[in-house]
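Anyone else keep sequences and structure tokens together like this?

Example one:
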Amino acid sequence: MNRISNAYSRLRGQLGAVENDLIDEFVSGKIDRRTFLRHGSMLGLSLPLLGGMAGGVGLLSGSTPARAEPKAGATIRVAAVTPAAAMNPVSIADQGGLTLLIQTGEFLCVTQPDLTLKPSLALSWSHNEDSSVWTFKLRSGVTYHTGQTFKADDVIATIDRLADPKNASNALSAFKGILSKGNTKKVDDLTVEFHLDAPYGSFPYVVSSDNYNCIMLPADFAGDFEKDWTGTGPFKLEKYTPKVGANFVRFDGYWGEKSLPDRVEFVFYDALQPRVLALQGGQADMIDQVPVAGGQALLNDPNFTVIREKSAAHEQVHMRCDTGPFQDKRVRQAMALSIDRTKLVAGLFRGFAAVGNDSPFAPAFPSTDTTVPQRKQDLQKAKQLMEAAGVGKGFKVTLTTERYIEIPDYAILLQNFARPLGIDITLNVESQDAYYGKAVFGQSDWLDSTMGITDYGQRGVPNVYLRAPLLSDGTWNGAHFKNPEYDTLVTQFGRTGDIGGQREVAGKIQTLLLDETPIIFAYFYDYLVVTKKTLVGIPPIANRLFLDRAGFA
């Protein structure tokens, strides 16, 4: 016990109240090592310091098992999903486009497999007393592929571009209500300050790889990214052919360790099975994301390696709260009660997922209040709710969604689950570009449909899930859900810096959403990447494919 006290007492006078609260929770055993490292990195405590503190109290896990080391000089071939639209960092919204974007572009910080934040173009960050101003120190000696030097002006221009509502940026899903255009300030060439709209304890995640549009671009970026793919990353573009593929080569001027592969080649496919056949036939070395539905042949094949990472990624089923048959929350509750979530996870995902409870609070988040009762299938109660809402005989509705991973199969299952209630669901499954449209209200089947299913990738904290699709003015509020009490609770959650306080607010949010049920969160799926047995060095970071340390053993 003395060793524990001595290890932390030296830091007490240097840290603020939120940091000391985190230490107290860790020492008392209220949070585990993973949560301690994750939350501490967000607050700006360095990972070496956090790891040393964790090790000092004997909570480091056992020694890391030996792994095969990748050799340099390889060409890695990826069977990838076709990007849904032009490569524009401001508006990109699909997995295929994101995977390409991060081969050449970099973020200020990057979410790691344990959900800690690793410095990248930012060396460190800190906050003022109420977390309303965050100061980021930038890395020196960084150059773009074009030879320009990375500096504070680039950060300001990039963030202002993304935070400007006129640009219809997808990053507004994270920025809206948190950081406005013009509030990123230059201190010097290697220091920027973010003056937030309101205190926000999880802000570093907002400008991390969690916010996939936030790759840093030169201040004079003119908007034509496909012209030269300028970035600071370990790879630079060799060739890009829309709808066909993209080749990248090592950038020898990279600020960090030079990439191990000489080249990375992406070949695009519109469907999963051709990608599976490409890997099985030796035309590809890996598939960037494999759903369980349709991917069983690979997942059960000992000739391939499955990289599995638990995540908060999920598919949201939104139901319009302002028009149509789901205006009455009792009907939305009935739809949610029709689903057998245990069978859904077992059947659709073969166990590669966790059951959801109709809120964004996944089991992976330490802020989730696990005492909130789990919603289960209850057809009798669902029918009673339908009768009480005046639709006991059922109704017809169209469910519009995207053709992506297991979503079409999920839509069929929802159709079957709803049938005993008399809800007759017609499916309208579209291509991703048709479904998302311009991703703004009035120009998007996603945001304008009465009922829909939308894929949401991994985030290190639940904040984007809480804000963009559920706030009254949320940029991705396909449910058209407006609830002042909810809005207030989400603001409170964002301002709360300590884990215990977040969990208390989370419980209130979870309870409210179970009652209102604007969105069904039935599961949170694992992120699966399948590679050749000999391909190693790919970090298991959900929805983010980093290949610079990959190679063949």
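And example two:
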Amino acid sequence: MSTVTVKKESRSLNVTMRVLNGIERAGNKLPHPFWLFIILSVALMVLSWILASAGVSAVNPADGKAVVAKNLLSAEGVTLMLGKAIESFTTFPPLGTVLVVMLGVAVADRAGLLSAVLRRGVSRVPARWVTFVLAFTGMISHVAADSAYIVLIPLGGLAFYAVGRSPIVGVVVAFVSVAAGFDASPVVTPLDVILGGITTEAAHTIDPSYTVTPLANYFFSVGSSVVLAAVITLVTETVLTKRAKSMPIDEDAEVGDLGELTLSAQERRGLRWSGVTLLVIAALVALAIIPDSSPLRGEGGSLVTGPLLAAISILLGLAFAIIGIVYGRIVGTIKSSSDVPEFMAHGMREMAPVIVLFFAISQFLAYFKWTGIGTIVAIQGAAVLKSAGVSGPVVFLGILIIVTLINLLITSGSAQWALVGPVFVPMLMLLKISPEATQALYRIADSCTNAITPMSPYFVLVLGFIQRYRKSAGIGTLMSLTLPLSLAMLVVWTLFFLAWWALGIPLGPGAPVR
């Protein structure tokens, strides 16, 4: 590498670091998401008073009715805020569904099944396949939510070291796969449930009967997970591997125990029987929906309008719980029936921060919907875009840019979608763009910059893992490794969505892209 090239890379990295330092300073001034939504609720009260006093309104083209801004500080508004607070929280769509799914996921997690699946995914992998397998395992790991960071990142370093490659690159590949690909997975995750609930609530602004299920983006998510794993592999092999040559690990590096990748005979047996159990569950569900008269089908024998998709959260929770119990009984992590509810209770304790955040979000969304401000903004925004003759792809790119920038500061996927979804979803519905397509677009913007924003709590965690191998590594070291991957994923994933939209492929069961 020439001296000129090194200087150019150094200048580029310095500019990047200055931008990121500014983002970090700005982000640190933001309150916790809970207080952010409380502040937004107070601001909404004042705004609703101003707009209602000014008589601001708009005609909803969906039904031809006038939507008038309503004052939250009026007697009717105060009645809503105080009298309907509990109802707004308990009927918040994502609340019940995500808790039900997490009951099952908690059993599978505490029994050790999820960790075993991830370890199995990165063990005994040929050197030429280690990058792709690790990246794709990262996509699967999203079912474990934030636990994926704790489990997979150190395993990524060990997996690379085991095949004679830089463990630093392994750590980065694992981190980017989990963080920058967080909204893509070949399996349904708790985030799918949360996003679907918030999108449903936002879609009710235009169509009160509209429902977005946890499977609304499933086909697109599966395809995205394969594409992103391929992008990570390509960039790693062509860019990161070369950079790693200038980052040798320290002679006294804490490599870790390679035995952590190896599954015991009991664990392998547990995985086999868990897999068999999952196949049996899938076969039973398939047999149950085959008859046209199946109670799981809707009117005219439709699966889309039947109770199957509506009950998908229950089925997912049961499936995770059952295979978790099978695994736990075999490996000995579940010794008695009382362990199962204890595991569930532990999972609910881990959900406490989410439940607290949901309370603030549910109140804000209830206020926002009641005032009609979101509908008015969506109608006026759609009218402006229509008059300007803006097409779908241009709208998509505009939303991608806005949400991607917001994501640098607000890294919570549910909090961010609760903030922008109530405006973008109805606005795009008025432009004949489905809520499922808007949600799929959000997945891209909400994911790719997770690996480069210093606002992510896991950014520093990953740096700590890298410093196990190279003590001199700093934020600049990590940034120079994650930035190429993050940008490549953003560009390719966007092109992938545009191609998917152009071809008109359904995003999920009963979920047209347009």
